[in-house]
Amino acid sequence: MKEAGRKQVVTPDASRGLGRTILALAVPALGALIAEPLFLLADMAIVGHLGINELAGAGLGTTVLQTAVGLMVFLAYSTTPAVARAIGAGDLGRAMAAGRDGIWLALGLGVVLGLAGFFGAPMLAAAMGAQGEVLRFAVDYIQYSTFGIPAMLLVLAATGVLRGMQDTKTPLYVAGIGFAANIALNLILVYPLGMSVAGAALGTSIAQWGMAAVYLWMLIPRIRNAGQSLAPHGRGVLGTGQVGSWLMLRTLSLRLALLATVWVATGQGALTLAAHQLVFTIFTFMAFALDALAIAAQALIGKELGAGDAVRANLLTRTMCRWGLYFGVATGALLAVIAPFVGALFTTNDSVREATMVGVWILAASQPVCGLVFVLDGVLIGAGDARYLAVAGVVTLLVYLPLLFIVTRFEHAGVSAVAWIWVAFGLGFMLARAATLTWRVRNDKWMRLGA
């Protein structure tokens, strides 16, 4: 690897060209990634005006749904580098076969998760600490959302295929249209049809199925044109699942951290839970925005390593780390400015709005670290370094849980509770992640060249 690095020289023109290449993937990816949390923001904004119990219930249901679907994000994260490596090596047939098998795996897992979520909704919501009206609304949201889980996973896998093909524009268009349809459906189902929280969940499910249908319509001809059968290949499906198992462990550690945080917020009462969920929804929105560079990293790192170009992979890593920090500073400044006003978009409750403002200020301070974390995560996913990511995720979780436990040892209410929860998560947890990821890229051991 080092010998390959000495044979190549990176010129200023090459660096400028690299910047344009990153932007060509990252900018459309930004739009597509923002569209996904906009689904959740739309739900929270529409439901938030129904009442605090509806908002807390939908927030809790959203957390359960995100946990289930989030564990399956490997469907995109394993498909993107697999397709990108094959593209870099000049093997389009292999790339399309990897995409096909990922899609089949997504459909199978989606059906299983959807059924489990529907019948297990009351138990899941109760396990999160919900009671009374909050429990009822949480169950409604989970059950009506499970209809869309197979579609959500299909969208993940299909998006991963297109990213691996260096196409981030198509997901932008599909997500944009899906978001517009989602808002229209939710407004109709929640208000004129009177379905309350259930209507918001059902509208999102219908929108996700529409997006999944568009992706299948686009990808099926490409798979056939590459000379590949539409039938799944058993070894390919199992291979995707095997690679994804490490990424699932990595994601599981992240989700456990999020669930533990929600559990602590739930124990502080409906006001704290509602405010925390609003801050977390904004965190998710900003995380997807910061992840635009990570998506570019997955596709570009996978392609360059598949082509055997270690020098360009190193240059990509350094460049995107700088950009991640800069972008984090910019998004943090934006959040600091809008923090006093953002709560009013979701609720008329003054106490919830005040607690949300403080939480968003703490989130703003953590944004530069978040930018670095998401970029490095994308680099290592693109390199196929799933095993290290899984181990690092477990280590980070073990660091974070004691911090969260300390928060529970003190009696908090409203603003104070939300503030300390977000100090532990937004600063403590993210700094721990940054430390483990930075340690990995200190040398070239994470690189694996070739298809």
Approximately how much beta-strand content do the residues carry?
A: under 5%
- How much helicity do the residues have? over 70%
Radius of gyration: 21 Å
The end-to-end distance, rounded to whole angstroms, is 15 Å
Main sheet overview: none
Shape: globular
Please mark out the parts with pLDDT under 50 across 5 or more consecutive residues, or reply none.
Answer: 1-12
Mean pLDDT: 82
Number of distinct helices: 16
Helix and strand content put the structural class at: mainly alpha
Count of DSSP E strands?
0
Structure notes:
The protein has one domain. It is globular and about 60 Å long. The N terminus is likely disordered. The longest helix has 37 residues. The protein has 451 residues and is mainly alpha-helical. The protein is built from 16 helices and no strands. The two termini are 15 Å apart. Helix 12 runs parallel beside helix 16. The chain is 84% helix and 0% strand.
Provide tags for this entry.
451 residues; mainly alpha; 0% strand; globular
Mind sketching the topology for me?
Blueprint lengths: L1 H5 L5 H37 L3 H19 L3 H4 L1 H10 L3 H36 L4 H14 L3 H16 L4 H22 L5 H30 L8 H34 L2 H37 L3 H33 L7 H33 L3 H23 L6 H26 L11
Helix pairs in contact: 2-3, 2-9, 2-10, 2-12, 2-13, 3-6, 3-7, 3-11, 3-12, 5-6, 5-8, 5-12, 6-7, 6-8, 6-11, 7-10, 8-10, 9-10, 11-12, 11-15, 11-16, 12-13, 12-14, 12-16, 13-14, 14-16, 15-16
Membrane topology: Multi-pass membrane protein
Subcellular location: Cell membrane
Keywords: Cell membrane, Membrane, Transmembrane, Transmembrane helix, Transport
